[in-house]
Write a structure and sequence with these properties.
- The chain is about 65% helix and about 5% strand.
- With about 500 residues, it is mainly alpha-helical.
- Strand 4 and strand 5 form a beta hairpin.
- Helix 16 packs antiparallel against helix 17, helix 20 packs antiparallel against helix 21 and helix 23 crosses helix 25.
């Protein structure tokens, strides 16, 4: 009965029947019943209930039961208590592959993605006493995608082939997504073409890969082939397709697809579809039309769609509309530091210093602070992370010296830093690029992943670096991929 409630629509009853079992029936629980009631607490988001069961587990001496302790790990990890989950893992006398997989999941869920990759290496080396399975590979491929860890992802791919997991559709789809999110579209497309039983997820992953890398026409070509193969697209497919049109500035194609989605497939556009169209219209300068579209939407606008329009206002210098957008964000109580930074940049570009001072004062009054960004770069299979004004890296002094040298060379080539912030010279992506130049031979491609939107100065810095140092630089920020070659970016300076 406890198990039945744990997987039913009333998980809270699982805890109650467990309590009645002990209080009224005087029946002593066993590890299996404890495991089921912990799952009830997980589904019911009851941290207090789970803590009570953990106490009972300790009292009754069930800590040697691997399955029960693994369930406890899942409970803590899912409740945002990553450190507690790791402590349970450390105290387990025996660990099987499932326990190690839960640890990997815990690391990914709690932002410790690099640690997840280290676990994979430990399991491969035999240090753990168990080998990675297909579930391990799925999660580690996700971690590689998050970190833009192409070399590590290739290692996982080789392991997948050696173990015969490459015949599983979900693994193949994850490989397509991983290579796409590392900017390796040729590799992604090769895996995609070799999938014998492609489903809608396979096609959507490939479309999304082309779209996020600014190759919208190829995304449309894949969609057309998908239709010829008789695979019905879903909402995510059209989101990816419209995103591709947006990133490539394909206005007419985007409008046709948006109309086709509704007329031919009977789909009601959701907030993500509208967001792509707003981004597309903003890219070509139709910011007022984009505003009217948002106002006329059948679904309620969310903060993301307003921020999309705000970014377009910044690019096209439409200060009046930008102020209106900020008002909508304030109404939603969703304003963030990045919104005000965009507004500040617009005021600065317009030379309206009075508004600059007023906005900074407003940010201070509201307690709005900028979020420190982080960037990662993979070199020789190792992930190196840098933060704003970083001092933690073991070779940080060499990195700063290299960054100073790069900036001298870029200035000779015509680059001028936009000094609107005292921290600007030390943004995380600049440090990552400098480390890449320091550590790799001339001409080596640099791949950087950033957790926030790249700023205008760092974007110009990357463009200049790609030209002066004759290197291809790929930066994936929160919005999209930027492929820098010969002083130009694939986004055409709109992101």
């Amino acid at each position: 009965m406890t198990r039945a409630y744990a997987i039913n629509n009333h998980p809270e009853r699982g805890f109650l029947i467990y309590r009645d079992m002990m209080r009224q029936m005087d029946i002593r629980p066993n590890p299996q019943s404890c495991s089921f009631v912990i799952k009830s607490c997980m589904r019911n988001c009851s941290l207090y209930g789970g803590l009570q069961i953990h106490g009972r587990v300790l009292r009754d001496g069930f800590c040697s039961d691997t399955r029960l302790m693994t369930t406890l790990m899942e409970f803590y990890s899912g409740g945002g208590k990553g450190e507690d989950a790791c402590q349970v893992f450390d105290e387990m006398p025996e660990r099987d592959t499932v326990a190690w997989n839960v640890l990997v999941s815990c690391y990914i869920r709690n932002g410790r993605t690099r640690d997840a990759l280290e676990v994979f290496d430990k399991m491969r080396s035999g240090e753990c006493g168990c080998e990675p399975d297909d579930v391990t590979c799925l999660m580690v491929l996700q971690a590689c995608a998050n970190l833009c860890a192409f070399e590590f992802g290739e290692r996982v791919h080789r392991y997948v082939k050696d173990c015969g997991y490459d015949r599983a559709l979900n693994i193949c789809n994850s490989l397509v997504a991983m290579y796409s999110k590392c900017g390796q579209l040729d590799k992604a497309y090769q895996v995609f073409r070799e999938i014998p039983n492609r489903d809608v997820v396979s096609w959507t992953s490939m479309i999304s890969g082309f779209a996020s890398n600014g190759r919208g026409r190829e995304a449309i070509d894949v969609f057309r082939e998908m239709n010829r193969m008789g695979i019905s697209p879903d909402e995510q497919t059209f989101t990816a397709l419209l995103s591709g049109c947006s990133h490539s500035g394909l206005l007419d194609e985007g409008k046709l697809i948006f109309d086709h989605m509704q007329r031919e497939f009977g789909m009601v556009p959701n907030i993500h579809h509208y967001g792509c169209v707003v981004d597309l219209m903003g890219r070509v300068g139709l910011v007022e039309d984009a505003y009217d579209l948002i106002i006329s939407m059948k679904c309620k606008p969310d903060p993301t769609i307003w921020r999309t329009l705000l970014g377009a206002c910044k690019v096209h210098g439409n200060l009046e509309l930008g102020e209106r957008v900020i008002e909508h964000l304030i109404e939603l109580k969703a304003q963030e530091a990045g919104d005000y930074i965009l507004l500040l940049n617009m005021y600065t570009s317009a030379g309206n210093w009075e508004k600059v001072i007023e906005t900074r004062k407003l940010m201070k009054e509201k307690g709005i602070q900028t979020t420190p960004s982080a960037s990662t770069i993979e070199l020789k299979g190792q992930i190196h992370e840098f933060k704003v004004d970083d001092t933690s890296h073991s070779r940080i002094n060499e990195v700063y010296e290299m960054l100073d040298e790069i900036e001298k060379q870029l200035k000779i080539g015509g680059y001028e830093a936009e000094i609107t912030d005292s921290r600007l010279s030390y943004h995380s992506e600049k440090l990552a690029m400098a480390f890449g130049v320091l550590e790799t031979p001339p001409g080596t491609k640099l791949r950087v992943a950033k957790d926030l939107r790249i700023c205008n100065d760092c974007h110009n810095f990357a463009k200049a670096l790609s030209q002066v140092y004759n290197r291809e630089v790929i930066i994936r920020d929160r919005t999209r991929f930027h492929h820098f070659r010969g002083g130009q970016c694939s986004c055409n300076d709109f992101w």
